[in-house]
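Try this one yourself first.
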């Protein structure tokens, strides 16, 4: 395992583990001008990296003023932009099954696109640094929530939280697979299918176990003779 992939894997795993104890982060700043600048930067970030110098080069000499937080803010904002693009692409889905809508959303969020994967690799390198760990956790939480939103899930309460924590594990594993070897669409789809099938099997097993546990009936006390 290379140093880069090891650091990213560790950072993603820690971020996924932290989803259970994290509250939903505040909405990130959204602006069409920022979005345009991010798209220009993302198209070259795989080769040139996420830096203010590259941003100024591709989006104008004052573009760095749009992201006072520097590269970490840029990558976090780009992740949010990708979430929004996924939600928009799922708006007209006619798939009746929730599990398949989740699969569609996952594959739209992590497309087999060399430029996007390359940009994501350098971006997650930024977020894997100690100064980016908070942004990584926030980004993962926003993405997981966006996937459920795109899948048109309307759960609430504890079910809402449980679903998002479970999907966080699936998304984290899929993200790492996508970054390392997600260039084949059929292989990526099969990977997602296996992860979702595993979640469904676990859910059915839990339902059988909890449904089969009946309270133990206490024996009636023996009658005593008068």
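Now uncover the answer:
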């Amino acid at each position: 395992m290379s140093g880069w992939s090891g650091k990213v894997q560790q950072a993603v795993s820690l971020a996924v583990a932290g989803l259970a104890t994290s509250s939903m982060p505040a909405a990130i700043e959204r602006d069409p001008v920022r979005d345009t600048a991010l798209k220009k930067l993302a198209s070259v970030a795989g080769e040139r990296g996420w830096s203010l110098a590259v941003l100024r080069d591709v989006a104008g000499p004052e573009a760095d003023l749009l992201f006072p937080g520097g590269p970490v803010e840029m990558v976090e904002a780009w992740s949010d932009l990708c979430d929004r693009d996924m939600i928009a692409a799922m708006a007209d889905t006619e798939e009746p099954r929730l599990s398949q809508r989740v699969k569609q959303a996952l594959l739209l969020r992590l497309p087999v696109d060399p430029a996007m994967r390359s940009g994501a690799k350098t971006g997650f390198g930024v977020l894997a640094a100690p100064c980016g760990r908070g942004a990584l956790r926030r980004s993962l939480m926003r993405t997981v929530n966006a996937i459920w939103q795109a899948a048109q899930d309307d759960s609430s309460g504890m079910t809402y939280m449980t679903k998002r924590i479970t999907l966080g594990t699936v998304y984290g594993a899929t993200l790492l697979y996508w970054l390392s070897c997600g260039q084949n669409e059929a292989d990526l789809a099969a990977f997602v299918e296996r992860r979702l099938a595993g979640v469904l099997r676990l859910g059915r097993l839990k339902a059988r176990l909890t449904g089969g546990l009946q309270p133990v009936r206490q024996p009636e006390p023996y009658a005593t003779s008068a």
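Discussion: Confidence is low (pLDDT under 50) at residues 212-226. Residues 22 and 200 are 24 Å apart (CA to CA).
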